[in-house]
Structure formats: C-alpha cells, structure tokens
Amino acid sequence: MRTTTIVEVTAGSDAVQDLLPLVFAAPNEALTKAESVLRHRPEPLHASVAHQVIGIWQRDFGDMRLALRHLRRARDWAARAGSADREADVLATLGVALVHSGRTRQGLDALGRGVRRGTGHTRARVLFRRAYSWWVLGHHKEALEDVRRAVPVLRQAGDVIWTARALTLRATVHLALGSVERAEADFASAEDLWAVTDQEHDKADAVESRGLAAFRSGDVPAALRLLDEAEERYAKLGTPTFMLSIRRCEVLMAAGLAAEALAEADTAIAELDSIGGQSTRKAELLLAAARAARHADDPATATARAALAVRLFAGQRRAWWEAHARLVLIGARHAAGKRSGRLVRDAAAVAERLVELGAPAAPEAFLLAGRIALDLGRTTDAERHLTVAARSRRSGPPLARMTGWAAQALRARAAGSTRGVLEACRRGLDVLDDHRMTLGASELRARATAQGAELAALAQQAALRSGGPRRLLVWSERCRATALSAPPTRPPADPELLSHMTAYREIAARAEETRMEGRPVPALEREQRRLERAIRSRTLHMRGEAHGDDARFDVGRLLEQLGDGVRLVELAVVDGRVQVLLCGQGRVRRFEAGLLAAAEREAEHVQAGLRRLAHPGAQARLPVVEAAGRRLEELLLGPAAAHLGDGPVVIVPPGRLHRVPWALLPSLRERVVSVSPSASSWLRARETRPPWGGRQVLVRGPGLATGGEEVTRLAGRYGGATVLEHRDATVPRVLTELDGAGLAHIAAHGTFRTDGPMFSALRMADGPLIVHDFERLGRSPYRIILSCCDTARFATVGADELLGLVTALLPLGTAGVVACSAPVNDAAVVPLMLALHEGLAAGLPLPEALRDARSAMPDDALHRATGWAFTAFGAT
C-alpha cells in the first residue's frame, strides 16, 4: 500500500503523488520525472514535491550543495502552497540533508520545526526521519524514543513503506547497541512488509541490513553473501553504495582481509569526493579506512585517516562516532611506538565515554588503556583498566570475547602467573577456533587467525619463560597451520560459480596467447580481474561444515611416531628470535638460533642466487649461494645442527620461512629431508592411507621448453598410467583423473599470485588450473609431484598460516608432495624427475627418493641448483 502527504494531482501524464515513493523504488526514473514536472510551470504544491524529489536524489546519490538548494526551494514552495503537512515533510527531508552535510544544529532545528508543524500521519514520518538523524549522530536513546512514537501511528495509518523503514531503523539502532536478537526480530518484520511493496531501493537496504545483522551474530559468510546481494540490487538501480562500503569494510576486517577493506574505503572516499557527497558518510568512511589500516599494520595511514575523521565528527557534533574515531587514533599512535601517561589518560577517557554512550567497543578501549599502562610500568592503572576489559570474555560475539581473554592474559602476565596466561590464551583461541570453523573458505579460515595473533604470542612467550621445551612445542603447534586441520568446505555445485570458472579459464588462456604474440591485453585483463572477483566472492560465501581436529596435539604421540631414527625440527619464533625445538629419541630439546628478520633476508639472497643458477653460465655464483646457505643454517638451526643424528629430518618452519631451500643447508644436504606446515600436519599425513588401486596419472601442460619430455618417458615406465597431454590436458579432465589417484605427476608451467594466492595456477590446455579447482576434489592424490616452477611458494597470512597449491592438497588426502620454490631450468628438471621416479619404483618414500635423485644429478651448478629448488612436503 502506498500513502503520501499530497493530494491526487498530475503534471503531464505523471502522478506527482507517486514521485516521492518512486525515489526509493526507481531513483533515476523519479529524478527524470521530477525534472519534467518543473519544466511545465507547476503550481506551488507540485513544485514543492518535484524539488523535494530532486533534493532527495542529490542528497543520497549526488551533490549535497545541489540537494540543499532544491530542498530549500521545496520548503519555500510548500510555504506558498499553505500546506502545513507539506512544509513539515520538506523540513524533515531538509533536516536530514543538513545533518548529512555536517550542519548538525541547523538540521536538528529543521527537524524540530517539522515535528511541530506536522500532524498525525505526517508527524510520524517526520519523527522517523528525526530518529534516523539521531542514529547518524550516535544519539541512540533519542532515536529509539522517536521511533517508539512513530511506529504505532504509521501502523494505524496502514503505511506499509514507512512502517518497514521505521522497523529497519530500530533494528539498526539495536545493532549499534549490541542487541542482536531484537535487531533480527525487527529486520524480519520489516522484510515481511517490504515483500508486498515495489520499493526496490528500500529492499536492497533491507538485504544490506540483514548482512550487518548476520555479521553481528558471528556469521561472516552469510554477511558477505547478503552484502554482495545488496550490491547487485543497488547496481540495477544505478545508485551509489557508500553505506554498504562501510559495512563491508567491517566484515572484511573481521575476516582478516584488512588490506581489501582499506582499498574499498579509500575508493569510496574518492568517489564520494568526486560527486560532492555527504560529509557524514565521508567521516564514516575515513573511520572505516583508519580501522582497516590499523588491522593491516599501517599505523601511519591509520593515524592520518583517524585524525581527519575525529575533526569531521567533532564538527558534526557526533559524539558517538568521535569517540570511536579517537579510539582508533590512540591505537594507531600506540602501534607507531608512542608511549606516554597522556596516551593512557586519553584511552581511559575514551573508554569511559564509550561506556556512557552504551557502545560495545568500550572493552576494546579499556584493553588499549591497560596495554599502554603496562608498557609504562603502571601496573596499578593497568590492572584497573584490564579488569574492566576482561569482563567481555564471558559473552558477546567471538571477537569481543577474544578482547576479554586478551585482557585476562595481560592481567595474568602482569601478576607473574604463567598458568593464568596460558589458560586465558587457551580459552581465547578456543573462541577463535569455534568462529573459524564457521567459515567454509580456506582463505577465510587462514586469514581469520590474525585475530588471535596477540594471544598466540603471549602464550609462546609464557611457555618460553617457563623453561619447558615440550610446553613451547605444544603452543607452537596450537598457533600454526590451524587452517589445515580440516578440509575446507567443498565449493557447492553452483552453476554460476562453475560458469565463472569456465569463463575465467577461457579469458586467461586468451590473454596468455595474446601476450605471447606481443599484443596488449588490457580488456582481457580487466575481464579476468572481474571474473576473479566473482569467483572469490562466491567461495567466500560458503559456510563451514567441517570440524577441526578435536584431539589436542600430543607430544607423546609425535615422539612415538618419530621413533629413534627420525628427527623433527620445529622452528618457533618468540620475540623475533628463532627457537629450535628438536624432537626425537623420546624427548624435546630447545636451542636458540638467530633473528627471524636476518634469516628472512638471507633466504631472499639464496632465492635470488637460485634464480641466477637456473641459467647456463652462472657457475661463478655457486660459491656465493653455498656461503649464503651456511649463514642461513646458522641463523635457522644454530647449535641444533650438531644434534640432528644420521636419520631423516622433518622441518616445521614458521610461515615466513617456507621458501627456504632446505636441501641447500650444509647439515641437510645429504639427508632425507621433508617439510611440513606443522607437526600435527606431519602426523596426519603419516597416518593417511593410500587409496585402493593406486592409479597413476601423468599430465603434460602446454608450452614447456622440453615439450614435457619427462611425461613421455614416464608413460613408458608406468604402463597402465593415465596420460593427459595436448587437448586432453583440460582442467575438467585433469581434475576427474586426479581425484583419488595414488600418484600424480604434473609437468606444467606454474605461476604464484602474490596478489591472490588462491589464483596461483598450473597451465593446462584450456587455461589455468587454480587452487580453487583443487579444493573441488573429493580426495587429492595420495602422492603428487609438481614438476613446475614456483609451486612451493606460499602467501603467509593470519597468525602463521599458508595459502598456496601445496597447502590446498594436504588437507584433502595428500600424504606427500614434491614441489619447487624457485624458477628452474626445464631441461635440468627432466633427469631429476626421472631419477625421482626410479626411487619411487624401488619403494622409497618421496623424501628419500628426492634425496637420491639429487645425488644422481651431474655435479655442476645448473643441476645442483635445480635439485636444491625442489622440496618434499608431508610424510611419505
């Protein structure tokens, strides 16, 4: 049902009374019709409506200066028409526009006059818009009061549209105050009402609001899905989505995608500036950008954005928002290294202000005040603030509870209680695990662990101080590669997703062919990026179904599996220094090695050397690379290198060191060496049983310098193997054959995407085989050999997680992988691979077969570098 405050009149063929509802059903159509009304010299009442419609359009989607100009004209024409209700309605719209332009006092004055001028039904609509303005300003109590007065009148008048708007607003205010259940009830009621209207913009807003409610209740995949649906609806209407960007930034940050949130906020700010849009929205976007920059470890950007947001909010008299911006500003200054008593006082003042305002962010502010006080040695002040922050650990959404457990851990550390620190960290990380397993996408699971980075660091520091290497090993395991503890949720049989992936392969293949011809490919690259966004969006919507490994890591079980002959070396990083945990012969020993930062620099030098050695004629670089390997060993293993024994060695490095070519280190050069993301992953791989039948699959991709010679020769060795090459080596066919295979060998060009690790790929005949494709496998091959460059490269995300081709395979049933961490010489790879398969045919595990294959290579720089570049992952 539609109701308006004006009588049934027409201008031309259009009903003027329909223009106001139309502006939120079809905004651009309403704008065109309103402009048409003004061209026909309308009477004052009609002119007032037309100017109001144009003002609303400009206010929400265009230039605020034009909006105010048209709304003032609408007010003047309403006064000439002598209609008090018409004037009240325009005053309400003008008041909202003034508030959005930062003229808070003028806006509230206009809204107050509107409430006094209006009667009955019209007055209820004005009350709704004043409630909306109170919400924008952060005055939630006043907003709820005005909505409480408006809703019964709107319902009694049978005004479906405005009742739905009022319920949506009330739900949004409840969310701001942390009342998720009340908000969900109001959203549900509003959605029922929207279903019987044609208000498409309002319907899109309702979907957006449901996304925010899903996020507040802890359902990140549902939030992302609903926000994407809302964006699609807005796109059909051709309207900007600044509020949506603010909400998406919040969800992206919670998902560990801070860099993307910062990019989205900055893009929206630039777009808003370009059209002269609402200054209130700009301030909110600046706050979103500041928060994102803070989460992305960019304190300089966070400080700049937050400082500007504080100034804008203060000028707009928006105390709620100003307090939140000040919280981010203080946190950014602290992250930049600033420590002072004034900073403690500022944080405490913001915390108290947030309590007064009823803001759920208050515990975060108390935690910050306590943390800064601890840095300054003010233990009494710290205890007071941390005690308040710790109260949030018992209830609320996951991230709020983690804030409380972080505060509790800091309290225990200040009191000297190692047990208390570890208990608080355990409880906080348990909360994170529960949250993480609601996420279906492996990327989100990995990135979400960033929320627990502080708890993980506190636990490891406490474990190191307690002096027990077993305890440090347990906590090192608790904090690494947790995203691999269970397979990701399989992408659904989603026709749209499958269509996007097919189109993506086709476009990527065309772009590659065009580049090889030396022609520019900007249009193809744009389409490729669009499809990547679509694929990623669909996969991030997946809700988690798999449960993690409920069994806690058991040191005794690990030592039993290692026996007397195998050593497992787990490298933990505590306060920037590498701690070597040497496991084997029934015990765990700890050795201290070098600084992580120095090891990372040396590893980069080694990688650069291997790239040079991949080309003939670089023999002179070999001594330089070997010297770098000796320095790297000292930094990573230190005195532990002398205690490795004679048997196989399993290396468990932190995520930032997974590119190290471990076979280059002198003490590991002649050994059987394998690498695992965690000791728990190694145990799971060791206990993985091969599939029945043990099929062999050999795949040859296009464009190899050797023509894939190794596959041709291996096909003769494995008489019954499935060989996919030329036109048969398509992604669908390759995936079908890989599923459940015993052994797979893929010779293809590999690419690692630092900007999007889930799009790292192997080149097949019809385009790239990407990580998202591997995750569709029911069971990945028991053993897989990736005879391709850069297949052992990973993106380090979250607390200590890895994204890449290898890590996509390990949770899906693969027990062993051979992959390459650097560019290699194609010709030199062939004899290495043939020798590797000779070892496998003799019954050797992958790590031992790879060791023997290296030994069988010619003793020149090219072949030695090729052998060092390949690593065995897993356990067999």
From TrEMBL:
InterPro entries: CHAT_dom, TPR-like_helical_dom_sf, TPR_rpt. Residues 627-874 form the CHAT domain. It holds the Pfam family CHAT. This is CHAT domain-containing protein.
